[in-house]
Amino acid sequence: MFDSYSGYRLLSRLVLFLLLCYVVGLLVGQVLWVMLIGCVGLLFWHYKQLSRLNYWLWRDKRLTPPNGSGSWEGIFNGIYRLQGKNRRRVNQLAYLLTRFRQGAEALPDAAVVLDSQNNILWCNKLAQLLLGLVWPQDNGQRLDNLIRHPDFSRYLKQANFDEPFEYHDTQNEGRVLEIRIMGYGSGQRLLIARDVTRIRQLEGMRKEFVANVSHELKTPLTVLQGYLEMLQELAEPGSPSIKAMDQMQQQTNRMRSMVEQLLVLSRIEDASAVALETKVNMPVLLDPLREEAHALAMGEYELSFDFEPKLNIYGNEMLLRSACSNLISNAIRYTEPGGKIEISWKRVALGAQFSVTDTGEGIAPQHLTRLTERFYRVDSARSRQSGGSGLGLAITKHALSHHQSDLNIVSRLGRGSCFSFIIPKHLIDQG
Fold first, then answer.
1. Strand partners, 357
2. What torsion, rounded to 10 degrees, do the Cα atoms 306, 308, 312, 313 define?
3. Integer Cα distance of 371 and 390 in angstroms
4. What is the 3-state secondary structure (H, E, C) of the chain?
5. What is the pLDDT of residues 47-88, one digit of tens each?
6. Number of C-alpha atoms within 13 angstroms, CB side, residue 267?
């Protein structure tokens, strides 16, 4: 069955109209004139319907189209049907937009939607509070025109949003905002700003506390060590107190080493930026480490060294020495005597790699992500026996972060571990 608005029905109506005009023309004896008058009347009627549609589209304020008849009935009804579909779609989109805005308003962070030119499309209330935006007056304004900070403008222009930007609000003294920008949709960006003032204050207090405590502990430890040495000299041979004093001396040395490492870690953390323009002669730096490794091994380990000559980099010599020394000493400390340790410094595809591979017991996967935390040790009893403080890898991590590098750890239980880091290409001396 054909639909009432199908082309077949429209064609059949036209044929019937022309047939009626032809019959009337036969009755009056003027077929051509009647056919012509009928066609003109049909054109006039179609023009009238078209005029009604045009008037409704451009001048009439009513939302519903006018009623049609004949072949125009399907057109007007079809427009009305499309209106209903569009109205439902608009309602759905408005509902989704409302839900999105409600969700964005519930966020604990400031949210700003930007276009590809960094013009503001929308922001939540927290963005108005933290960033000083005014909505909807700032709609369409460039964000860097409203947040006038040279570093932030440079951050936007570089369009490298892998790392967050810390914005120190000059209008609110002491407030620190962490800003992250991510792309989404078609050429749009979402800016998320979070108040990290309290976190930064706590970090500063922690660093200051550790530095102060470490510094204050140096004096009493020196006094204790001095008196212990004096008592050891005065003790009679074979006295039972000699063993106790030896253990006290060992623990005092261990605590003193821990304090020194805490001070080193505090200095590294306080250094906001390290100049990477100084050329570091790596063969000269690694030769003393080779001697230190042999001294620590005391002939009980098989050591192998593979240092590529003339592979120099730019960085901080003290930090690099500390990172390499910690990795070598850890490998020797946590490998059973008779094990093999391979130390290499060579050029790789991504830059220059320093690696230390041992044949120790290995580390379980659940410990790998926490090895660089302060005082974290896989086996506390074993660390105490070997003299480990749990700070070496934390120092290494922070030292490498100043050289745009990360500590990579690969380990398998019973097969050993490999600790390595890669200095990026742009820090390698090409001379």
1. 342, 418
2. -60
3. 8
4. CCCCCCHHHHHHHHHHHHHHHHHHHHHHCCHHHHHHHHHHHHHHHHHHHHHHHHHHHHCCCCCCCCCCCCHHHHHHHHHHHHHHHHHHHHHHHHHHHHHHHHHHHHCCCEEEEECCCCEEEEECHHHHHHHCCCCCCCCCCEHHHHCCCHHHHHHHHHCCCCCCEEEECCCCCCCEEEEEEEEECCCEEEEEEEECHHHHHHHHHHHHHHHHHHHHHHHHHHHHHHHHHHHHHHCCCCCCHHHHHHHHHHHHHHHHHHHHHHHHHHHHHHCCCCCCCCEECHHHHHHHHHHHHHHHHCCCCEEEEEECCCCCEECCHHHHHHHHHHHHHHHHHCCCCCCEEEEEEEEECCEEEEEEEECCCCCCHHHHCCCCCCCCCCCHHHHHHHCCCCCHHHHHHHHHHCCCCCCEEEEECCCEEEEEEEEEHHHECCC
5. 888 888 888 888 877 777 777 777 787 788 888 888 888 888
6. 11
Q: What is the pLDDT of residues 352-373, one digit of tens each?
A: 999 999 988 888 888 888 888 7
Q: What is the pTM of this model?
A: 0.52
Pairing of strands 110-114, 120-123: antiparallel
